[in-house]
Amino acid sequence: MPDSTSDFPESVRAPFDLMRQAWSESPVSTAKERKQSLTGLLKWVQANEKRVAVAIDADFGGRSHHETRLELEREQAHVLMGWKGLPLYHPQSAALGLASACLNGQGGRLFMELREKRGWAYQVGAGSEEGLHHGVFNAHIAVAPELVAKARDGLEAVLRTLAEEGPSEEELAKAKRFLLGGRAMSRQSSGARAMEWGHAWLYGEHPIGGMARADQRIQDCSAEQVQAALNSTLSGPSVVVFAGGLS
User: Fold this and answer.
1) Residue 174 above 60 pLDDT?
2) Helix axes 223-234, 93-103, angle to 10 degrees
3) 82 beta partners
4) Is 89 left (phi over 0), alpha (psi -120 to 50) or beta?
């Protein structure tokens, strides 16, 4: 097989070749190795703070070095909660996606409860990803290390409240606009539409009319269906991951 990097400039090819060699020698890192790599990365960033600030300033076309330094110095802990999600084209996929949309964004339940009301979160959100056999539903929050326990409990409480109550009419309408608008934007290029058709053809949804049917499933979804899909997901076992800023 020809070398796909042969036409790259040396400044790009050399580091790429080093990364490729490292991957071939150790394709799967242990937890200990990953922690060592992250620790090394943190030390490098701290030692090269000025260079990082200059690079970010250039990349943004103008960004305050002071703002970058504040972000580098801010100690954060991240909490990620995950549940087994749905396979591709599952009947509840639209409903679970709408549940995620109700939780997400600056007007979503997670942001309003954990950032605006309680002032805990630097970042907070949720996501639903389908997979070939099963997917993943997750929620995450970044907080000060001393708030990890409260944040974990608060994160789950917001999810379970939505599962118990279901979304309001206003929440559901907003979530539908968000999902349908995002889908429309993602199809603006012919390449993106071809990718969606090919994906559908390979994994079980006939592409002729498939995009319209998927959109219609979102539009037709009721609050009760969203509630049922989220309840079903949260009834399974969860995995909780903590990272960063923890002693």
Assistant:
1) yes
2) 90
3) 138, 239
4) left
Q: Quote the CA–CA distance of 130 and 84 in Å, as a whole number.
A: 10
Contact indicator for 163, 137 with CB cutoff of 8 Å: no
**C-alpha to C-alpha distances, 76 to 24, 71, 227, nearest whole angstrom:** 33, 10, 32
The architecture of the domain spanning 77-243 is 2-Layer Sandwich (3.30)
- Is the whole-model pTM more than 0.90? no
Domain ranges of the chain: 11-73, 77-243
CA distances to 10, 24, 91, 168, 186 from 195, rounded to whole Å, are 32, 30, 22, 34, 11
For 68-90, how does the pLDDT look when each residue is reduced to its tens digit (9 = 90+)? Answer: 665 666 678 899 999 999 998 89
**89-92-94-97 Cα dihedral, nearest 10 degrees:** -110
Helices 169-186, 210-220: inter-axial angle, 10-degree rounding = 170
